[in-house]
Structures are given as C-alpha cells and as structure tokens.
Amino acid sequence: MSDSVTTTLDVRQIPPPQKHPIIFQTFASLSAGQSFILLNDHDPKPLHYQFMHEHEGQFTWEYLEQGPEIWRVQIGRPAAA
Fold it and tell me: What is the residue range of 49's domain?
C-alpha cells in the first residue's frame, strides 16, 4: 500500500462503545491518498464489515500484523485516480 500514513491510532485502552466512532472520525479526517494505522487487541473484522457497508469502494484495508496479541491494520482513502 503506498498511502501516506498520517497517524497511529491505538484503541486497545478505549472503552468498546467509543472505539468505532473514534476510528470513523479518524478516517473522516483523511484526504485522498492518506491512511492511518489501527492498533487493536483483537481482529477488527466487525469494523471491516462496517466499513464495507458504510464506505464501500471508498477505503483501503491492509493487515500489517494479525495477532495473536496485537492486530495492526492500515486503513486509508484511495488516491484520486
């Protein structure tokens, strides 16, 4: 993935009801071609499904590390074609 990483968002200590709103707020702040690294203590599959439902074709998702203790996912906005 060639997106420019703007920040790392560690949600491991954030209460579960606040995680997705903070993640989507971070995503909303990205410009085309930018991304952020999400750090989590479990596989964020439900988050991926939510992205697919709400932002289909408008995001990139790449696992950088897949457990067992930490998951790192690079989430971004595709560069304008």
Answer: 4-76
